[in-house]
């Protein structure tokens, strides 16, 4: 709203009043992205403690702890859940200030994030209400809702942006290698968005583990969205040009800042857990942004930690169903390392390092084509 006010009123007065020309800096996406990061961080730090206090009183016992989990987790009993609200409030407050809220890509991304947050909130609510750490929300219904939201979002992206390559899949490391998936792209988009959401959700198992890789991924997409929305840079790098997508850099920036504010309270020992309300929403945000910018495959590289977590869970379940044997001591894989005796903080830092490596490989795909 601040950007909208400045753009429609004060910018027009800058010719008459030279002192107001300094406000022209707000026109630049780079400035507003930086401002969005700082704003979201400050808001997160301000609202963090009040939200934690509220959740402690409301939840009366906090997040239920899995009985088959690592012994160290029982010391976390009583820690409240739904810390994702800290991130989401910070994100959207910053977005309202600095983004062009009339941008259709901002609206589509916001729709996906809010929808997945509601799905996650209901799942978190059932866990708190039933005092059960295991899934209380029907997996099939949850997946159906996720795919439905993804299909609706992609439909509006394709219809309202008029982007002629919306259903085309672009492959990194190749200049002209593309594949038009046609109507099948609706299913593919659901896999990308839901996969991102559930990948981040599975990673949310240790204090600070999910926040770091998600911050790194959102930082990567700050760069991608800015370049994709700049026709000169997009042509130079031979990446798809998507008009208006540079505005999503502000969304990614607000997400980055919100995660930093949340990490202040979520770092070991966590004062609050992110919960499905945050992890599903953030993963879906990364997924829809990768679909919009046509960097779906690169998202799988940058979010390599999320992919590893998902694969470890699939391998564990598949192996047990087929052979009645487990591959890991516990899945997802970060619990396997816990069971082997590695300290929680060491696992978290090593996963962050892996995320940085995957992020650098993702950046390399921009030039190595």
Outline the structure in words.
The chain is mainly α. It has one domain (2-364). It has helices at 2-13, 29-59, 84-98, 104-130, 139-161, 185-203, 211-228, 231-237, 248-266, 275-292, 296-302, 304-323, 333-339, 344-364; strands at residues 168-170, 178-180.
List key phrases describing it:
369 residues; two-stranded antiparallel ribbon; 14 helices; globular
Question: How do the strands and helices of this protein lay out in sequence?
Answer:
Layout: H1 2-13, H2 29-59, H3 84-98, H4 104-130, H5 139-161, E1 168-170, E2 178-180, H6 185-203, H7 211-228, H8 231-237, H9 248-266, H10 275-292, H11 296-302, H12 304-323, H13 333-339, H14 344-364
Antiparallel strand pairs: 1-2
Helix pairs in contact: 2-3, 2-9, 3-9, 3-10, 4-5, 4-10, 5-6, 6-10, 6-12, 7-9, 7-10, 7-14, 10-11, 11-12, 11-14
- In what order do the strands lie side by side in the largest sheet? 1-2
Radius of gyration: 21 Å
Mean pLDDT: 88
Number of strands: 2
Number of helices: 14
Summarize, please.
The protein is 66% helix and 2% strand. It has helices at residues 2-13, 29-59, 84-98, 104-130, 139-161, 185-203, 211-228, 231-237, 248-266, 275-292, 296-302, 304-323, 333-339, 344-364, and strands spanning 168-170, 178-180.
């Amino acid at each position: 709203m601040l950007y909208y006010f400045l753009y429609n009123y004060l910018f027009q007065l800058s010719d008459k009043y030279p002192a107001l020309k300094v406000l022209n800096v707000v026109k630049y996406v780079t400035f507003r992205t930086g401002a969005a990061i700082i704003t979201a961080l400050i808001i997160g730090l301000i609202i963090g403690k009040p939200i934690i206090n509220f959740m402690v009183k409301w939840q009366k016992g906090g997040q239920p702890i899995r009985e088959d989990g690592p012994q160290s987790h029982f010391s976390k009993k009583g820690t409240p859940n739904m810390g994702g609200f800290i991130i989401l409030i910070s994100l959207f407050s910053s977005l309202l200030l600095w983004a062009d809220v009339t941008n259709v890509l901002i609206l589509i991304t916001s729709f996906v994030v809010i929808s997945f947050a509601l799905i996650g909130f209901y799942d978190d609510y059932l866990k708190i209400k039933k005092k059960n750490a295991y899934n209380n929300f029907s997996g099939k219904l949850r997946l159906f809702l996720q795919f439905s939201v993804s299909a609706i979002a992609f439909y509006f992206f394709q219809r309202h942006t008029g982007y002629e390559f919306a259903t085309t899949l672009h492959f990194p490391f190749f200049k002209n290698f593309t594949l038009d998936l046609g109507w099948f792209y609706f299913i593919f988009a659901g896999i990308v968005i839901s996969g991102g959401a559930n990948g981040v959700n599975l990673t949310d198992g240790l204090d600070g583990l999910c926040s770091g890789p998600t911050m790194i991924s959102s930082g990567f997409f700050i760069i991608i969205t800015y370049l994709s929305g700049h026709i000169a840079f997009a042509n130079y790098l031979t990446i798809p040009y998507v008009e208006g997508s540079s505005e999503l850099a502000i969304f990614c920036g607000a997400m980055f800042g919100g995660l930093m504010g949340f990490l202040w309270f979520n770092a070991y020992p966590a004062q609050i857990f992110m919960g499905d309300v945050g992890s599903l929403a953030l993963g879906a945000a990364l997924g829809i942004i990768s679909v919009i910018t046509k960097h779906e495959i690169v998202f799988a590289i940058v979010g390599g930690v999320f992919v590893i977590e998902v694969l470890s869970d699939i391998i564990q379940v598949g192996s047990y169903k087929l052979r009645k044997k487990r591959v890991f001591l516990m899945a997802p894989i970060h619990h396997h390392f816990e069971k082997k005796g590695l300290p929680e903080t060491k696992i978290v830092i090593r996963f962050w390092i892996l995320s940085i490596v995957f992020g650098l490989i993702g950046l390399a795909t921009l030039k190595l084509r």
